[in-house]
Design brief:
Elements (H helix, E strand, L loop, with lengths): L2 E2 L11 E4 L5 E6 L5 H9 L3 H8 L5 H4 L2 H8 L6 E8 L5 E9 L5 E8 L8 H15 L4 E7 L3 H9 L3 E5 L2 E10 L2
Parallel strand pairs: 6-7
Antiparallel strand pairs: 1-2, 2-3, 3-4, 4-5, 5-6, 7-9, 8-9
Length: 183
């Protein structure tokens, strides 16, 4: 179980500290261009399963950490969305990455969260998702959605805990769509 420290409503401009179920202290904060090397190290520590669950295919470490990809990840146009990282307190290490990205439909944004394997199941995915929902509301997003594999029970639990409805997607029984209305 995750225990929030101060009950601030973060994260587009301020950090949000919290403690994971195992006692690890982390802070959720906006991503910055200075995070490129930390994001590369984060990706180097991911299992093939975590990569597949997030990207829906196996990408090589070189693909995920190319200079172009890191620059796109760490430089977010506020008109297009927002990205947060969970950084371990006292250690320069990223433990999770989350983002919202506006899509072509007015008021809609896609949400994505990726948590380091060794801290999965400790509440960080839920905390990151909740923080991204708050950021989306602050940005005027009206509907969040994200796709996930039907066998990704952990992420299904995270989005359901956060209030998302989870439905089958037409034409592909392997993929579910999580949706949350922010109106």
């Amino acid at each position: 179980m995750l225990s929030p420290m101060p009950a601030a409503d973060p994260p587009t401009d301020a950090a949000s500290p919290l403690t994971l179920a195992d006692g690890t202290a982390v802070v959720l904060r906006p991503i910055t261009p200075a995070d490129e090397a930390l994001i590369a190290a984060f990706h180097a520590g991911l299992s093939p399963r975590s990569v597949y669950q997030r990207y829906f295919h196996i990408t090589t470490l070189e693909q995920r950490t190319s200079q172009q990809r890191l620059a796109l990840t760490c430089r977010v146009d506020p008109a297009q969305g927002a990205a947060l990282v969970a950084e371990r307190v006292g250690v320069t290490e990223i433990l999770a990455l989350g983002r919202i990205r506006r899509t072509g439909t007015a008021g809609d944004a896609e949400i994505a969260v990726l948590v380091a394997d060794r801290v999965q199941g400790l509440g960080l995915g839920t905390a990151m998702t909740q923080a991204l929902v708050r950021v989306a509301r602050a940005l005027g997003v009206r509907r969040l959605y994200g796709d996930l594999f039907a066998d990704n029970d952990a992420m299904q639990a995270v989005v359901r805990r956060t209030g998302f409805a989870v439905r089958a997607t037409p034409g592909d029984a392997r993929v579910l769509r999580a949706e949350l209305s922010l109106d």
